Amino acid sequence: MRHLIGVKEIWLGHFKNFRYLQELHGKNYQGLEDQVRKAIFEEKLKKIVQHNLEYDLGMHSYYLGINKYSDWSSQEFSKNMKGLIVSEDHTMDLYEPSGDMKLPSSLDWRSKGYVTGVKDQGGCGSCWAFSTTGALEGQHYRKSGKLVSLSEQNLVDCSTQTKGCNGGWMIDAMEYIIKNGGIDTEESYPYMGEQNHCHYNKSNIGATCKGYKRIEQNETSLKQALAAVGPISIGINVGGDFQDYSGGVFNSPHCSNNIESINHGVLLVGYGQEKGIDYWLVKNSWSDQWGEKGYIKMSRNKNNQCGIVTYASYPIV
């Protein structure tokens, strides 16, 4: 039963655990809101306990857990923690894989120095910015051998083709970086979690971008591209139990691959197999207190579950 909740205090009672959640994440509710949040938390708790009992019986390949979003409604979560707005008015070159490339059985670009630490978009629909910087950080490392954390706030404030905390599209962000002549470093232009006036400074450029390529919409091509070039920017549908995911291989029939349902930008950094199930390794931007320290293993070779191959691209540096 080790997967039941993820915090030992659960056995001390629902109310105390709600207070534990508040204390852990610096939350302080008053009056009616406190009651509403507690009710949401307790309903979430019931769902998590039931799912994880089924997980222990072998009925699921992933388990759920309490996190800092456990007192948020699904509607609130959707409004604040997604933000992908697809714009298809771009002509993109197609990645062409090498026919004789031998692919490894598993891959994790984190171990090769291509990936910065997990970041947190906060209550801002800026996932598109984090997906963009993650892919560019990897390509910059591939070319220079230096891993530089890049500024999502630079994109949120300055990319006029996107809508800041109200959503955006990774290709539009890459277009901004190309036309702007670069993007500032995270250190020089730190993330604030809200849209402000643009104060980009070219003397603080951390990376540049010359163009981008898309990847053919199938899992074989995506695997080849990932192994050949490094981390890939992707769009997915955040459906099913995504909000409460804590570990294992996320395999949910409720996570649609319908093109209209793709609503979140993330970074693909690897692939592998766990307990006989193929997975994609994905870096999210919901802090390291969500999922497997900020990551999720998503089903691979499951008919494009969650739309993981539908919008895949990477920048050229």
Automatic annotation (TrEMBL):
Gene3D superfamilies per UniProt: Cysteine proteinases
SUPFAM superfamilies: Cysteine proteinases
Name used for this protein in its record: CTSL
Keyword Lipid metabolism: no
Organism: Cordylochernes scorpioides
Family: Belongs to the peptidase C1 family.
Classification via SMART domains: Inhibitor_I29 (SM00848), Pept_C1 (SM00645)
Cathepsin propeptide inhibitor domain mapped to chain residues: 18-77
InterPro entries: Papain-like_cys_pep_sf (IPR038765), Pept_asp_AS (IPR025661), Pept_cys_AS (IPR000169), Pept_his_AS (IPR025660), Peptidase_C1A (IPR013128), Peptidase_C1A_C (IPR000668), Peptidase_C1A_papain-like (IPR039417), Prot_inhib_I29 (IPR013201)
Domain Peptidase C1A papain C-terminal per the UniProt entry, residue ranges: 103-316
Matching PROSITE patterns: THIOL_PROTEASE_ASN, THIOL_PROTEASE_CYS, THIOL_PROTEASE_HIS
One Pfam family from the record: Inhibitor_I29
Keywords: Disulfide bond, Hydrolase, Protease, Thiol protease, Zymogen
